[in-house]
Amino acid sequence: MLPYRIGFGEDAHRLEGGRPLILGGVEIEDAPRGAVAHSDGDAVLHAVADALLSAVALGDIGQYFPDTSEENRDLDSRVILARCLTLVRERGYVPANVALVVTLDRPKLGSRRTEIARRVAELLGLAFSEVGVSFKTSEGLAPDHVQVRVTVLLTRVQGDDA
Ligand code: C5P
Ligand code: MG
After folding, report:
1. 145 annotated among ligand-binding-site residues
2. What fold characterizes domain 4-156?
3. Where, in this chain's numbering, is a divalent metal cation bound (predicted)?
């Protein structure tokens, strides 16, 4: 069993008026547009969940929560993340730290950095200082979507010598 596993996840959603923009479980109230999605469209939590699965080579969230299923309509992404965390723990690993990058032209998100990092940390059982949150614009190249990229490092569960 490897002492560490690294995972990478990505997610993007189209932006449209009249939808909420939720990033890492935090609603961005001043966003003029939100994510079009089958679930709640939280691209941060989707990308984190995919990064967790990728670290233990379990595929991606679409296998566990198909976007063709009515059951998953408007699904709270925290449910998706909790399931992925359980799958990772069952394989003997826990998150050690996470780094995420949100690409979004508007609005500027700097004032929400602490809140997003705290929320993601809480959901993953990490300290605030173990969640890096960066923001980038697309420089106008992709103004109609939000994109998130995430790396995660897993360590073995303490006391698990399997
Ligand atoms: O994309 P660019 O490098 O021009 O972004 C400049 C800075 O603006 C970023 O380093 C980040 O601090 C901030 N930013 C932000 N919210 C965004 C996009 C960028 O706070 N949605
Ligand atoms: Mg998504």
Report:
1. no
2. 60s Ribosomal Protein L30; Chain: A; (3.30.1330)
3. 11, 13, 46
